[in-house]
Amino acid sequence: MPTNPITTSIFDLFKVGPGPSSSHTIGPMKAAFDFRQRLAQLPPETQQQATAIHVHLYGSLSATGKGHGTDRAIVAGLLGWQPETTDPDALLKLLRDGSVTYPIPVGDQLIELGPQQIHFERIRYDSPYHNTMVLRLANGEQTLYSEEYYSIGGGFIIRKGEPEIDPNSLSVPYPYATMAELKNQLKINKISLDELLMANEMALTNRTKAEVNQRLDQILDFMHKAVRRGLRHKGILPGSIKLTRKAPILFHQAKGMSQSSDSFLIFLNAYCLAASEENAAGGIVVTAPTSGASGVIPGLTYLAKHHFHYDRPTLRAGMLAAAAIGFLVKHNASISGAEMGCMGEIGTASAMGAAFLTRCAQPIGDIAPIEAAAEIGIEHHLGMTCDPIGGYVQIPCIERNAMGAVKAYNAFLLATSGAASFQKISLDAVVKVMKATGRDMSTKYKETSEAGLALSATEC
């Protein structure tokens, strides 16, 4: 049995929430909401002394937090908002007027929070993760209570000092930590990938099979709503770049080229740009596995539904295969742009998308081509930097979603050409390389906007 098996739910990987960055919006919102709940449990004498709440942001949260809306997300969480039910228009209005403050309940009193209490720290902070936030309840200069949180990508957060979950305390019927172990479980138990993933999900969440399928359908619906909204919405995206939305233009162009062999790719590009532009606008999207990469799989699943006409069961099976790849990368490397660069986000999404397409195309669900497709998807994103201009998830992020989807489709074609058994590099091997590459990559290229294309900001 693996010493540290994967115990992540599919619905922790595919989370619904506002864009533009899961590590900068969904994660901080969840952390702030957690802090709000902990404030409510403090002794009354501590609550009564409080005069202020301060938020300190470090690493990438400080470097690009303004462009990503981290400050708004934290205010929203402290106000009691949750990612899936947040009104994106209301979220965008927070902190628009610097003179407006927001009442945060602490015991029987309300403490006003404004932009002056949110500190984008530029000093180096001794932390095990790049995205660190410290929330403090204070009386003047005195700290009455504080918590430190880490946003580790895809909306996942860790609270400092929180006991690590004992892998043995979360029991799944088919434990695995690597692709090799996953394939071994399939072999010795003589079950399909769909059956294994469904059984594990049911054990982790106490959902029935019907409930898991219903939630998968809801996730797909959220993805496709983002695509449809993006295909309709025109105009300029928020932020100083003043980037014009392209998805409606491409979609209109594709519809007029139905007889051209290029129309297929233009449709796919339009769908991916549509969801990604909605994310950049702060709309509701699905982390797949992150918000910054939330155009790849929605675009591919929309294509699969409306062009390949796959039915619901086939789309669900593809989503399970995509989740398995996301689990393996998150468990053995990282899906965070601040840890891995863009290969952690778009690279993982492309690999997941390739697995999705491969599973949908084969009724049996043979694991070999699924692994090959995912490996190819990651291999050709190795070393990709995360260098957003101005800290906005716009350039190069939006087009990278489209490029990641096209690479996913090509990885699917290569893996299903009948030569999957000839693949020399295993998925486990490429994930190890991915982790090492992320470790060796200069911090400047990991979501700080201090290098690469981010230096082109003056030309925009």
Automatic annotation (TrEMBL):
Query: Does Lyase count among this protein's keywords?
Result: yes
Per its UniProt record, the required cofactor names are:
[4Fe-4S] cluster
Q: What class of enzyme is it?
A: lyase
| Source species, domain of life | Bacteria
Q: Give the record's GO biological process terms.
A: gluconeogenesis
According to the UniProt entry, its GO molecular function terms are:
4 iron, 4 sulfur cluster binding; L-serine ammonia-lyase activity; metal ion binding
Domain (Serine dehydratase-like alpha subunit): residue spans on this chain: 190-454
Q: Could you tell me which pathway this protein works in?
A: Carbohydrate biosynthesis; gluconeogenesis
Q: Which residues form the Serine dehydratase beta chain domain?
A: 9-161
SUPFAM superfamilies given in the database record: Serine metabolism enzymes domain (SSF143548)
Q: Does the keyword DNA damage apply?
A: no
Task: Please report which protein family the annotation says this sequence is part of.
Answer: Belongs to the iron-sulfur dependent L-serine dehydratase family.
Please provide the record's keywords in A-Z order.
4Fe-4S, Gluconeogenesis, Iron, Iron-sulfur, Lyase, Metal-binding
Q: What is its EC number?
A: 4.3.1.17
Reaction(s) the record says it catalyses? L-serine = pyruvate + NH4(+)
**What is the protein name stated in its UniProt record?**
L-serine dehydratase
